[in-house]
Write a structure and sequence with these properties.
Length: about 700
């Protein structure tokens, strides 16, 4: 793999499961070399692919009682995927993070620490990824931090950081608000307008990043979290309220207006068929009543100690919905684009959404079930929970956060066109309303993990001379506040990256693309392209390119696994050029030939072999035999000078004499041409061929 890429691994350990994310970006030295003026003003360009993610269930918090099992029973498959994707020679330079969210926050501190300790030990024992400090790489992050990372990710993908004029929302504001909701918690993050930021400066976090040219990018962001207000935790509180109000002695059935008519479940949401004496929730399909019963769960009646508050007595600075356009992810996306809408539906308006929800939730469960199974069987559970989730989302969005009910309520500033003055880039993205749900932007998932990697990659960029404040975030104070959290990365001023890396990375991208195609024609095109690129390069660069691409193909197979069918690059070149068709250039150096003697050289005609080192994953050799210089023979040459001419000392006469001593019948046995053998070294100033 080329030197130009940097990699990062991060595991999102949520309440319902753990998800692996792998990201890649250009080394700053390479990025600066090829960057345009606009790119120099931007943050590093992060790349990811669908196959670089993987999720397993249940959540890591389920190992609180037996933390010793978290590695082999939970993390192993995720670690194996990361080891497969990232080149072996980049492992030591690749940071690995596991950051746990709401599920782990609910565990006692002793169990949290035990799971974290076992996780760090497993990573160190089974990978060579960079893990210098367990406390910063493996941790339970606060909800505020999760929200801030999500805010970075959303604005990074939308372009709010790099194109302020194009994303102007009015009042000199060009960033987007961020809303996230999982199973156990909900987060909000936004940059208040200038007036609010001055009035509530103590409530804000100072975020500092760094563009490619080394200049700082600073933002003042408010972020907060509501633990216990995710959909699953809210549902548990809702069911408890029903039990407290309706369950009578000797009875076991409770009406549930948030379930479709006729659906019967237990407290955990599992379907009940037939008679049962256990507690049953019986769906009545009354969505208006469902809304009325979920609203009190917001805790709007809890006193606000620090005005203003949104819900549950939690302080939040005033939100100007004229300029703060919020992007909702996770449950906001799934609940608006699950069973109620097609993925082609982009804009959210309350009136249209509520009509769809009312129509769906008033149906009998038998009809819903048959339609869902006809589309996709795994939508059954989603359909059971859809009505409560929709009710909870509407309550949080409009009753809790106060987002205008677009479509039936006036804009925050009557008589003013909200879209007036909005930048062209914002219009193109379509994020014009106070709220819009999203899952991906430009085919990249909006995940808080991306925000963490954007911050980390920005920390690898060397700062400009007069801008040496670190990358990270902390209290809204000048300089480096006491609670400042550093990005965790460091910068190194490196030389320009070898151009051959571009070819090897291009080769890998083409190979990946070819393998994803079903036609052999595209794969043939890739082979022809690589072959032409191979021919038109200088001889020494051809050898380096061959070695790099061959290593890319070899990396597809894990050490010790059987070879699969197909034509590898080495087999292709052997068929095309003949076995041992490597060209070596003879170089003559000045000096007395009497001073040197060739040591033993291993044959280059055997098969390639794998090598390994204990406790580590080592890449395979290229298969190119390299002549070796016998350094130990220098002193012997001085003590025992060999008479004869240069041909004798080169070994030609010696080999002839050795053959003549053979029995006649063996004289011609095993003879083969040595035309393809490597030229032997004639000077200690020459270096063996090495792999870049």
């Amino acid at each position: 793999m080329g030197k130009k890429w940097r990699w990062g691994v991060i595991l999102d350990a949520g309440s319902s499961g753990t998800r692996l994310h792998i990201y890649r970006w250009l080394d700053p030295a390479k990025a600066v070399k090829d960057a345009s003026y606009q790119e120099m003003q931007s943050l590093p360009s992060i790349v990811t692919k669908d196959k670089w993610t993987k999720k397993i269930r249940p959540g890591i918090s389920t190992f609180g009682d037996h933390p010793e099992d978290v590695g082999p029973d939970h993390l192993e498959d995720l670690v194996e995927r990361a080891l497969d994707v990232i080149p072996e020679d980049k492992h030591a330079d690749t940071p690995i993070f596991l950051m746990a969210t709401a599920g782990m926050r609910l565990l006692p501190p002793t169990q949290q620490r035990a799971v974290i300790t076992e996780t760090c030990a497993y990573f160190r024992a089974n990978t060579r990824f960079s893990l210098p400090d367990c406390d910063t790489h493996i941790q339970v992050i606060p909800g505020e931090t999760e929200g801030l990372y999500g805010w970075i990710a959303a604005n990074y993908l939308l372009g709010g950081f790099d194109d302020p004029e194009g994303h102007a929302h009015g009042k000199n504001h060009h960033t987007y608000g961020f809303l996230d909701m999982g199973g156990a918690s909900a987060q909000i993050a936004f940059a208040p307008n200038t007036t609010v930021a001055e009035e509530h400066g103590n409530d804000l976090k100072l975020l500092r990043m760094r563009s490619l040219n080394g200049a700082p990018k600073e933002y003042k962001v408010f972020t907060s979290t509501w633990l216990g207000f995710g959909v699953n935790q809210a549902r548990e509180r809702y069911v408890k309220s029903l039990v407290d109000e309706f369950l009578l002695d000797g009875e076991h059935e409770i009406p549930d207006p948030c379930l479709p008519r006729g659906l019967r479940t237990n407290e955990k949401g599992e379907t009940i068929k037939g008679s049962s004496k256990a507690l049953e929730l019986v769906g009545t399909g009354e969505f208006d009543e469902c809304l009325r019963r979920t609203k009190p769960l917001l805790g709007k009646d809890i006193p606000c100690k620090d005005e203003p508050c949104l819900f549950n007595g939690q302080h939040v600075p005033p939100i100007d919905f004229d300029v703060n356009h919020f992007v909702g992810v996770s449950e906001y996306w799934h609940t608006t684009h699950g069973v109620f809408a097609n993925k082609d539906d982009t804009a959210y308006d309350f009136n249209t959404y509520q009509k769809k929800v009312l129509e769906f939730c008033s149906q009998r469960w038998e009809d819903i079930e048959s339609n869902v199974e006809a589309r996709k069987k795994d939508h059954g559970k989603e359909a059971q929970e859809a009505c409560f989730k929709a009710s909870w989302l509407i309550s949080v969005l409009h009753e809790g956060i106060g987002i205008p009910r677009y479509g039936i309520e006036p804009t925050p500033t009557p008589g003013i066109n909200v879209t007036k003055g909005i930048g062209e880039a914002a219009k193109e993205k379509g994020f014009l309303n106070p709220f819009q749900a999203a899952d991906e932007i430009n085919d990249i998932e909006i995940s808080w993990t991306l925000g963490k990697m954007v911050l980390y990659s920005a920390g690898q960029i060397p700062p400009k001379d007069n801008y040496r404040l670190p990358v990270g975030f902390g209290s809204n104070e000048k300089g480096i506040p006491a609670d400042f959290q550093f990005a965790g990365s460091s910068y190194n001023v490196t030389s320009a990256i070898d151009g051959d890396d571009d070819w090897s990375d291009t080769a890998e991208d083409l190979i990946d693309h070819a393998k994803s195609k079903s036609t052999s024609g595209f794969f043939l095109f890739v082979i022809i392209f690589l072959f032409l690129a191979f021919l038109f390069r200088k001889r020494d660069r051809r050898m380096r390119l061959y070695t790099r691409v061959n290593k890319i193909l070899r990396r597809r197979r894990r050490p010790g696994s059987p070879r699969k069918g197909g034509v590898g690059l080495s087999a292709f070149t052997q068929k095309l050029f003949g076995r041992g068709a490597y060209n070596y250039e003879r170089v003559l150096e000045e000096g007395d030939v009497d001073q040197f003697e060739l040591g033993d050289a291993s044959s280059d005609e055997g098969d390639n072999s794998d090598s390994s080192a204990a406790g580590s994953r080592v890449g395979r050799s290229s298969g190119l035999a390299t002549p070796k210089l016998n350094v130990d023979s220098f002193d012997d040459l001085k003590k025992h000078p060999q008479p004869g001419n240069a041909l004798d000392r080169s070994g030609l006469v010696v080999r002839t004499e050795s053959r003549e001593r053979l029995f006649p019948q063996m004289l011609n046995a095993g003879r083969r041409s040595r035309a393809g053998s490597p030229t032997r070294l004639k000077s200690p100033l020459m270096s063996p061929l090495t792999e870049d």
